[in-house]
From TrEMBL:
Residues 23-356 form the Enoyl reductase (ER) domain. It comes from Escallonia herrerae. Keywords: Metal-binding, NAD, Oxidoreductase, Zinc. It holds the Pfam family ADH_N. SMART domains: PKS_ER (SM00829). This is Enoyl reductase (ER) domain-containing protein. Belongs to the zinc-containing alcohol dehydrogenase family. It comes from the Eukaryota. Its cofactor is Zn(2+). One of its GO terms (molecular function) is oxidoreductase activity, acting on the CH-OH group of donors, NAD or NADP as acceptor. InterPro entries: ADH-like_C, ADH-like_N, ADH_Zn_CS, ER, GroES-like_sf, NAD(P)-bd_dom_sf, SDH-like. Transmembrane segments: none annotated. The lineage of its organism: Eukaryota, Viridiplantae, Streptophyta, Embryophyta, Tracheophyta.
Length: 357
Protein backbone atom coordinates (compact mmCIF):
# COMPACT_ATOMS: atom_id res chain seq x y z
CA UNK A 1 0.00 0.00 0.00
CA UNK A 2 1.05 3.53 -0.71
CA UNK A 3 1.89 4.60 2.85
CA UNK A 4 4.02 1.58 3.75
CA UNK A 5 3.67 -1.35 6.13
CA UNK A 6 5.35 -4.54 7.29
CA UNK A 7 3.51 -6.89 9.68
CA UNK A 8 0.83 -7.63 12.31
CA UNK A 9 -2.62 -6.22 13.00
CA UNK A 10 -4.43 -2.94 13.54
CA UNK A 11 -5.61 -1.53 16.87
CA UNK A 12 -5.75 -4.98 18.41
CA UNK A 13 -8.25 -6.18 15.83
CA UNK A 14 -7.81 -9.04 13.39
CA UNK A 15 -4.37 -9.40 11.88
CA UNK A 16 -4.07 -7.56 8.59
CA UNK A 17 -2.86 -9.86 5.81
CA UNK A 18 -1.53 -9.16 2.33
CA UNK A 19 -0.23 -10.98 -0.75
CA UNK A 20 3.54 -10.55 -0.72
CA UNK A 21 5.75 -11.12 -3.75
CA UNK A 22 8.72 -12.89 -2.14
CA UNK A 23 10.52 -14.31 -5.18
CA UNK A 24 10.13 -15.33 -8.80
CA UNK A 25 6.77 -17.12 -9.14
CA UNK A 26 6.36 -16.96 -5.37
CA UNK A 27 3.50 -15.20 -3.59
CA UNK A 28 2.78 -15.58 0.12
CA UNK A 29 -0.17 -14.40 2.21
CA UNK A 30 1.58 -12.84 5.20
CA UNK A 31 0.94 -10.25 7.92
CA UNK A 32 1.07 -6.61 6.83
CA UNK A 33 1.28 -3.85 9.43
CA UNK A 34 -0.53 -0.62 8.64
CA UNK A 35 1.08 2.75 9.37
CA UNK A 36 -0.57 5.23 11.73
CA UNK A 37 -3.59 6.97 10.25
CA UNK A 38 -2.59 10.52 9.29
CA UNK A 39 -5.01 13.44 9.58
CA UNK A 40 -5.66 13.41 5.83
CA UNK A 41 -5.67 9.60 5.43
CA UNK A 42 -8.34 6.93 5.38
CA UNK A 43 -8.21 3.25 6.26
CA UNK A 44 -9.88 1.15 3.58
CA UNK A 45 -10.99 -2.48 3.64
CA UNK A 46 -10.20 -3.86 0.21
CA UNK A 47 -13.13 -5.50 -1.57
CA UNK A 48 -11.93 -5.79 -5.19
CA UNK A 49 -8.39 -5.90 -6.56
CA UNK A 50 -7.62 -6.59 -10.21
CA UNK A 51 -4.50 -8.19 -11.66
CA UNK A 52 -2.54 -6.11 -14.16
CA UNK A 53 0.05 -7.22 -16.69
CA UNK A 54 2.67 -5.39 -14.66
CA UNK A 55 1.78 -7.50 -11.60
CA UNK A 56 2.36 -10.63 -13.68
CA UNK A 57 5.68 -9.26 -14.98
CA UNK A 58 6.85 -8.69 -11.41
CA UNK A 59 5.79 -12.21 -10.44
CA UNK A 60 7.57 -13.82 -13.39
CA UNK A 61 10.75 -11.72 -13.49
CA UNK A 62 10.80 -9.46 -10.39
CA UNK A 63 10.96 -6.49 -12.72
CA UNK A 64 8.85 -4.38 -15.06
CA UNK A 65 10.69 -1.96 -17.37
CA UNK A 66 13.34 -0.30 -15.18
CA UNK A 67 11.54 -1.05 -11.90
CA UNK A 68 13.15 -3.96 -10.03
CA UNK A 69 11.84 -5.81 -6.96
CA UNK A 70 14.78 -6.09 -4.54
CA UNK A 71 12.90 -7.10 -1.39
CA UNK A 72 9.51 -8.63 -0.56
CA UNK A 73 6.67 -6.39 -1.77
CA UNK A 74 2.88 -6.43 -1.47
CA UNK A 75 1.40 -6.73 -4.97
CA UNK A 76 -1.70 -5.15 -6.57
CA UNK A 77 -2.86 -1.67 -7.60
CA UNK A 78 -6.29 -1.88 -9.31
CA UNK A 79 -8.56 -1.58 -6.32
CA UNK A 80 -11.71 -0.45 -4.55
CA UNK A 81 -13.01 -0.89 -1.04
CA UNK A 82 -15.01 0.45 1.90
CA UNK A 83 -13.85 3.20 4.26
CA UNK A 84 -13.41 1.94 7.81
CA UNK A 85 -11.75 4.93 9.45
CA UNK A 86 -10.96 8.53 8.48
CA UNK A 87 -8.33 10.97 9.69
CA UNK A 88 -9.45 13.94 11.76
CA UNK A 89 -8.96 16.39 8.86
CA UNK A 90 -10.89 14.34 6.28
CA UNK A 91 -14.11 16.14 5.34
CA UNK A 92 -15.33 14.47 2.15
CA UNK A 93 -15.50 10.82 3.23
CA UNK A 94 -17.01 8.90 6.13
CA UNK A 95 -16.88 5.36 7.41
CA UNK A 96 -18.93 3.08 5.18
CA UNK A 97 -18.32 4.98 1.94
CA UNK A 98 -17.46 2.80 -1.04
CA UNK A 99 -14.44 4.18 -2.88
CA UNK A 100 -12.18 3.56 -5.86
CA UNK A 101 -8.52 4.29 -5.16
CA UNK A 102 -6.07 6.12 -7.39
CA UNK A 103 -2.83 4.25 -6.65
CA UNK A 104 -0.17 6.93 -7.11
CA UNK A 105 0.91 9.45 -4.45
CA UNK A 106 2.86 12.30 -6.03
CA UNK A 107 5.00 14.83 -4.17
CA UNK A 108 3.02 17.97 -5.20
CA UNK A 109 6.28 19.95 -4.96
CA UNK A 110 8.17 19.23 -8.19
CA UNK A 111 7.72 21.17 -11.43
CA UNK A 112 5.64 18.37 -12.99
CA UNK A 113 3.19 18.37 -10.08
CA UNK A 114 2.96 22.17 -10.09
CA UNK A 115 2.20 22.08 -13.82
CA UNK A 116 -0.60 19.58 -13.22
CA UNK A 117 1.24 16.65 -14.79
CA UNK A 118 1.66 14.79 -11.53
CA UNK A 119 1.77 11.43 -13.32
CA UNK A 120 5.34 12.37 -14.33
CA UNK A 121 6.42 13.12 -10.76
CA UNK A 122 9.90 11.61 -10.21
CA UNK A 123 9.05 10.92 -6.56
CA UNK A 124 5.75 9.16 -7.25
CA UNK A 125 4.87 6.47 -4.72
CA UNK A 126 2.72 4.05 -6.70
CA UNK A 127 1.06 0.90 -5.40
CA UNK A 128 3.14 -2.22 -6.12
CA UNK A 129 5.94 -0.35 -7.87
CA UNK A 130 9.10 -1.17 -5.92
CA UNK A 131 9.86 -0.28 -3.22
CA UNK A 132 6.24 0.80 -2.54
CA UNK A 133 3.78 -1.81 -1.33
CA UNK A 134 0.52 -2.48 -3.16
CA UNK A 135 -3.10 -3.04 -2.25
CA UNK A 136 -3.80 -6.78 -2.39
CA UNK A 137 -4.47 -6.85 1.34
CA UNK A 138 -7.32 -6.94 3.85
CA UNK A 139 -6.83 -3.25 4.61
CA UNK A 140 -4.65 -0.36 3.51
CA UNK A 141 -4.08 3.27 4.49
CA UNK A 142 -4.23 5.85 1.69
CA UNK A 143 -4.64 9.63 1.28
CA UNK A 144 -8.31 10.60 1.31
CA UNK A 145 -7.92 12.86 -1.73
CA UNK A 146 -6.99 9.79 -3.79
CA UNK A 147 -10.13 7.88 -2.76
CA UNK A 148 -13.20 8.59 -4.90
CA UNK A 149 -16.71 7.84 -3.68
CA UNK A 150 -18.69 5.50 -5.91
CA UNK A 151 -22.32 6.16 -6.91
CA UNK A 152 -24.90 3.62 -5.79
CA UNK A 153 -25.19 2.11 -9.28
CA UNK A 154 -21.44 1.48 -9.62
CA UNK A 155 -20.15 -1.71 -8.00
CA UNK A 156 -16.85 -2.10 -6.19
CA UNK A 157 -15.62 -4.36 -8.99
CA UNK A 158 -16.40 -1.61 -11.49
CA UNK A 159 -14.65 0.83 -9.17
CA UNK A 160 -11.48 -1.25 -9.30
CA UNK A 161 -11.72 -1.11 -13.10
CA UNK A 162 -11.27 2.67 -12.95
CA UNK A 163 -7.52 2.07 -12.84
CA UNK A 164 -7.12 0.32 -16.22
CA UNK A 165 -9.89 2.47 -17.67
CA UNK A 166 -7.90 5.53 -16.62
CA UNK A 167 -5.13 4.47 -19.00
CA UNK A 168 -7.59 4.58 -21.90
CA UNK A 169 -9.08 7.89 -20.78
CA UNK A 170 -5.66 9.50 -20.42
CA UNK A 171 -4.66 8.18 -23.86
CA UNK A 172 -7.80 9.64 -25.43
CA UNK A 173 -7.08 13.00 -23.85
CA UNK A 174 -3.49 12.94 -25.11
CA UNK A 175 -4.68 12.03 -28.61
CA UNK A 176 -7.52 14.59 -28.57
CA UNK A 177 -10.25 12.09 -29.45
CA UNK A 178 -13.61 13.55 -30.46
CA UNK A 179 -16.66 13.04 -32.69
CA UNK A 180 -14.60 13.54 -35.86
CA UNK A 181 -11.79 11.15 -34.94
CA UNK A 182 -11.60 7.74 -36.63
CA UNK A 183 -9.59 5.46 -34.38
CA UNK A 184 -7.38 2.44 -35.02
CA UNK A 185 -6.30 0.33 -32.04
CA UNK A 186 -3.36 -2.05 -32.20
CA UNK A 187 -3.95 -4.83 -29.69
CA UNK A 188 -7.19 -6.18 -28.21
CA UNK A 189 -5.83 -7.06 -24.79
CA UNK A 190 -7.25 -5.46 -21.62
CA UNK A 191 -5.69 -2.06 -22.29
CA UNK A 192 -6.69 -2.11 -25.96
CA UNK A 193 -10.25 -2.89 -24.93
CA UNK A 194 -10.53 -0.14 -22.30
CA UNK A 195 -8.97 2.30 -24.77
CA UNK A 196 -11.63 1.30 -27.29
CA UNK A 197 -14.39 1.86 -24.72
CA UNK A 198 -12.91 5.23 -23.76
CA UNK A 199 -12.54 6.34 -27.39
CA UNK A 200 -16.20 5.56 -28.01
CA UNK A 201 -17.20 7.50 -24.89
CA UNK A 202 -15.14 10.45 -26.15
CA UNK A 203 -17.19 10.35 -29.35
CA UNK A 204 -15.03 8.46 -31.85
CA UNK A 205 -17.44 7.61 -34.72
CA UNK A 206 -15.54 4.63 -36.11
CA UNK A 207 -13.13 2.25 -34.39
CA UNK A 208 -11.14 -0.56 -35.97
CA UNK A 209 -9.15 -2.87 -33.72
CA UNK A 210 -6.49 -5.40 -34.75
CA UNK A 211 -4.89 -8.34 -33.00
CA UNK A 212 -3.29 -11.72 -33.68
CA UNK A 213 -5.81 -13.60 -31.52
CA UNK A 214 -9.27 -14.60 -32.75
CA UNK A 215 -10.84 -14.72 -29.29
CA UNK A 216 -9.67 -11.24 -28.35
CA UNK A 217 -10.98 -9.88 -31.63
CA UNK A 218 -14.34 -11.53 -31.00
CA UNK A 219 -14.51 -9.88 -27.58
CA UNK A 220 -13.62 -6.52 -29.14
CA UNK A 221 -16.41 -6.92 -31.67
CA UNK A 222 -18.91 -7.82 -28.95
CA UNK A 223 -17.84 -4.73 -27.00
CA UNK A 224 -18.56 -2.44 -29.94
CA UNK A 225 -15.65 -2.33 -32.37
CA UNK A 226 -16.95 -1.36 -35.83
CA UNK A 227 -14.50 -3.70 -37.56
CA UNK A 228 -11.85 -6.18 -36.48
CA UNK A 229 -8.75 -7.19 -38.42
CA UNK A 230 -6.60 -10.23 -37.70
CA UNK A 231 -2.91 -9.64 -38.32
CA UNK A 232 0.29 -11.66 -38.09
CA UNK A 233 3.49 -11.17 -36.13
CA UNK A 234 5.53 -10.97 -39.36
CA UNK A 235 6.98 -7.53 -40.19
CA UNK A 236 6.88 -8.42 -43.87
CA UNK A 237 3.07 -8.33 -43.74
CA UNK A 238 2.75 -4.69 -42.67
CA UNK A 239 2.06 -3.18 -46.10
CA UNK A 240 -0.67 -5.68 -46.96
CA UNK A 241 -2.26 -5.40 -43.53
CA UNK A 242 -2.33 -1.61 -43.77
CA UNK A 243 -4.39 -1.96 -46.95
CA UNK A 244 -6.85 -4.23 -45.15
CA UNK A 245 -7.05 -1.78 -42.23
CA UNK A 246 -7.79 1.12 -44.58
CA UNK A 247 -10.59 -0.86 -46.23
CA UNK A 248 -12.03 -1.70 -42.81
CA UNK A 249 -11.89 1.94 -41.69
CA UNK A 250 -13.54 3.21 -44.93
CA UNK A 251 -11.85 6.54 -44.24
CA UNK A 252 -8.54 7.93 -43.11
CA UNK A 253 -7.13 6.77 -39.77
CA UNK A 254 -6.99 9.96 -37.69
CA UNK A 255 -5.51 8.46 -34.53
CA UNK A 256 -3.88 5.11 -33.86
CA UNK A 257 -3.35 3.78 -30.36
CA UNK A 258 -0.56 1.22 -30.14
CA UNK A 259 -1.63 -0.74 -27.08
CA UNK A 260 1.01 -3.43 -27.54
CA UNK A 261 4.26 -1.54 -28.12
CA UNK A 262 6.19 -3.87 -30.43
CA UNK A 263 8.17 -3.18 -33.60
CA UNK A 264 5.42 -4.64 -35.75
CA UNK A 265 2.51 -2.84 -34.09
CA UNK A 266 4.25 0.53 -34.09
CA UNK A 267 5.35 0.12 -37.72
CA UNK A 268 1.75 -0.65 -38.65
CA UNK A 269 0.46 2.30 -36.62
CA UNK A 270 2.83 4.76 -38.28
CA UNK A 271 2.08 3.43 -41.75
CA UNK A 272 -1.70 3.25 -41.34
CA UNK A 273 -2.24 6.69 -39.84
CA UNK A 274 -3.15 9.42 -42.33
CA UNK A 275 -0.91 12.39 -43.08
CA UNK A 276 -1.31 14.90 -40.28
CA UNK A 277 -2.71 12.25 -37.95
CA UNK A 278 -1.46 11.08 -34.59
CA UNK A 279 -0.06 7.89 -33.08
CA UNK A 280 -0.31 7.40 -29.32
CA UNK A 281 2.02 4.80 -27.83
CA UNK A 282 0.21 3.18 -24.91
CA UNK A 283 1.74 -0.30 -24.60
CA UNK A 284 5.38 -0.88 -23.77
CA UNK A 285 6.14 -4.34 -25.08
CA UNK A 286 9.64 -3.37 -26.19
CA UNK A 287 11.99 -0.94 -24.46
CA UNK A 288 13.48 -0.11 -27.85
CA UNK A 289 11.91 -0.32 -31.30
CA UNK A 290 13.08 -0.03 -34.90
CA UNK A 291 10.26 1.66 -36.83
CA UNK A 292 9.80 3.65 -40.09
CA UNK A 293 9.89 7.04 -38.40
CA UNK A 294 11.24 9.07 -41.33
CA UNK A 295 8.32 8.32 -43.71
CA UNK A 296 5.91 9.10 -40.88
CA UNK A 297 7.68 12.39 -40.18
CA UNK A 298 7.47 13.31 -43.87
CA UNK A 299 3.68 12.94 -43.56
CA UNK A 300 3.67 14.95 -40.32
CA UNK A 301 2.33 12.08 -38.24
CA UNK A 302 2.66 13.15 -34.62
CA UNK A 303 3.80 10.58 -32.05
CA UNK A 304 2.87 10.98 -28.38
CA UNK A 305 3.28 8.69 -25.43
CA UNK A 306 1.47 8.23 -22.15
CA UNK A 307 2.61 7.29 -18.67
CA UNK A 308 -0.14 6.19 -16.31
CA UNK A 309 -2.76 8.97 -16.01
CA UNK A 310 -3.79 12.16 -14.23
CA UNK A 311 -7.14 13.44 -12.95
CA UNK A 312 -9.06 10.58 -14.53
CA UNK A 313 -11.07 8.99 -11.69
CA UNK A 314 -13.95 11.50 -11.65
CA UNK A 315 -14.51 11.11 -15.41
CA UNK A 316 -14.17 7.32 -15.27
CA UNK A 317 -16.73 7.14 -12.49
CA UNK A 318 -19.09 9.41 -14.42
CA UNK A 319 -18.74 7.24 -17.53
CA UNK A 320 -19.64 4.20 -15.40
CA UNK A 321 -22.49 5.95 -13.59
CA UNK A 322 -24.06 7.24 -16.79
CA UNK A 323 -23.66 3.97 -18.67
CA UNK A 324 -21.50 5.54 -21.39
CA UNK A 325 -18.97 2.84 -20.55
CA UNK A 326 -19.78 -0.68 -19.35
CA UNK A 327 -16.75 -2.50 -17.97
CA UNK A 328 -18.69 -5.44 -16.56
CA UNK A 329 -18.01 -7.68 -19.60
CA UNK A 330 -14.28 -7.23 -18.94
CA UNK A 331 -14.57 -8.79 -15.48
CA UNK A 332 -14.24 -12.44 -16.43
CA UNK A 333 -12.83 -14.17 -13.34
CA UNK A 334 -13.23 -13.89 -9.57
CA UNK A 335 -11.11 -15.37 -6.81
CA UNK A 336 -11.10 -15.21 -3.02
CA UNK A 337 -8.27 -13.94 -0.84
CA UNK A 338 -6.49 -17.14 0.20
CA UNK A 339 -3.06 -18.53 -0.59
CA UNK A 340 -4.46 -21.08 -3.03
CA UNK A 341 -6.86 -18.71 -4.77
CA UNK A 342 -4.36 -15.86 -5.13
CA UNK A 343 -1.87 -18.23 -6.73
CA UNK A 344 -4.57 -19.54 -9.05
CA UNK A 345 -5.65 -16.00 -9.97
CA UNK A 346 -2.15 -15.08 -11.08
CA UNK A 347 -1.77 -18.32 -13.01
CA UNK A 348 -5.01 -17.66 -14.88
CA UNK A 349 -3.99 -14.08 -15.60
CA UNK A 350 -0.56 -15.14 -16.86
CA UNK A 351 -2.06 -17.75 -19.22
CA UNK A 352 -4.32 -15.20 -20.87
CA UNK A 353 -6.79 -17.12 -22.96
CA UNK A 354 -10.31 -15.94 -22.21
CA UNK A 355 -9.24 -14.10 -19.03
CA UNK A 356 -9.44 -10.31 -19.21
CA UNK A 357 -9.80 -9.12 -15.60
Amino acid sequence: MGKGGMSHGNNGEEENMAAWLVGINSLKIQPFKLPPLGPHDVRVRMKAVGICGSDVHYLKTLRCAHFVVKEPMVIGHECAGVIEEVGNEVKNLVSGDRVALEPGISCWRCSHCKEGRYNLCPDMKFFATPPVHGSLANQIVHPADLCFKLPENVSLEEGAMCEPLSVGVHACRRADIGPETNVLIMGAGPIGLVTMLAARAFGAPRIVIVDVDDHRLLVAKELGADEIVKVSTNNQDVAGEVEVIHKAMRAGVDVTFDCAGFNKTMSTALSATRAGGRVCLVGMGHNEMTVPLTPAAAREVDVVGIFRYKNTWPLCIEFLRSGKIDVKPLITHRFGFSQEEVEEAFEVSARGGNAIK
